[in-house]
Every structure is written in C-alpha cells, then in structure tokens.
Amino acid sequence: xxxxGRSYGCWEAIFPDEGDRPPTGYDRFGVRRxxxxxxxxxxxxxxxxxxxxxxxxxxxxxxxxxxxxxxxxVCESAHRYLHAAHQLxxxxxxxKIDLADSLDEIFExxxxxxxxxxxxxxxxxxxxxxxxxxxxxxxxxxxxxxxxVNGENSGYELEFVELQRGTLKVRRSEFSALRSHxxxxxxDQLPYVxxxxxxxxxxxxxxxxxxxxxxxxxxxxxxx
Length: 224
Description:
elongated, single chain, two-stranded antiparallel sheet, disordered C terminus
C-alpha cells in the first residue's frame, strides 16, 4: 500500500539464513532481480485489502467538504483504492474490475475525476521482444525469457509455457511467474503482456515438434 502497515492482520515471510539459501538464478538467466534474500515480504489478503479500500473511500466521499479540508483525504483514499485494485488484478487472474463503474458506484453520482484522472485509470503500454524458450522443467513446462519495456523500466523476465492440446500456451493462472512480489507489471497490464507473449510464441514456434533441444532447467539448478 501507499504507507506502512495494513488495516488488518498479516504475516511476514523471512528468507532462510545465508547458509541455507539456494541459488537465485538471476545471474544465470540474466533477468531482473525482483527480490533479494534480505527482503521481508508481507503476506496479506488482496481481496480484503480491496474491500477495505473501497469502504474507506466510500466513507470519506460521504463526509467530503470543502470547508473542513477533507478533499486531500479523499484523494489519498482514491489512490489507495486504485493501488488495491491493481494488486487484486495482479494476484487474482479471475477478477475483472471496471474502475470507472466502480468509482461511479462508490461516489454515488458525485464527480470523482478531481481525485483520479483518466490517465490514472488508463493502462500504461508495455512492449515485449526477444521472446525465447530457454529450457524445460521436471514438470514438463517450458521456461520463457523475454525483454520488456514498461515506461522508464526495462529488463528481462521469465514466464512458464505449458503444452495444451499440442500447442504452447503462456501460463496466465495464479501460478504465473509474473504474478510475484515486486512484479514488473501492474495487474491491469498483465492481460496485454500475456497476449503479446502468446502472439510471439505462436509466430516463433508454430510447430512444437520442431522445438530445439532444450536443457532441463531444474536439474541443472539443483546440481549447481
């Protein structure tokens, strides 16, 4: 969220001590370092967080007044709500949120555009390139590496590809590698990223029988 702490109970996941840490794989695959062993990760319910943010915004919108200086508080709550929506879309692949309709409902006919502009609700464009299947796992999955440009941020990311009915399909489920702590993309960007990756996979590997011989990623990592 936009400041420290949560509105309800949460947990912390602490990484193993230095002597118990496995290889990260970042250097091997040349991808963005999304998390470090020194990080402390907060685990919380994004559905509850989104509901709480909506309730808080509704209450502040009801009490809004130009005279008591409450409008900055409404603006803060609106951005909290937007952030919570992006978090929910990041972690829950089934959720569909029309932010404009949701804000209309929360503000009950009041004008919310002074607090969130159309640009705030738009999905920033993402470019993907250099898509390549680089290996396989023991579970029969393929590992995909690609370059991305997301505004001022750029780098390489990994994603899983699964064999479905004879074709390679980019994983979009809750087990997608892109749904992660310190993700490279917002939740509302992911559908566009998946679609772009799938289009390039279809173009590069139309016939899976002609895939190059690929190393077994998990076996190699375990031997390091």
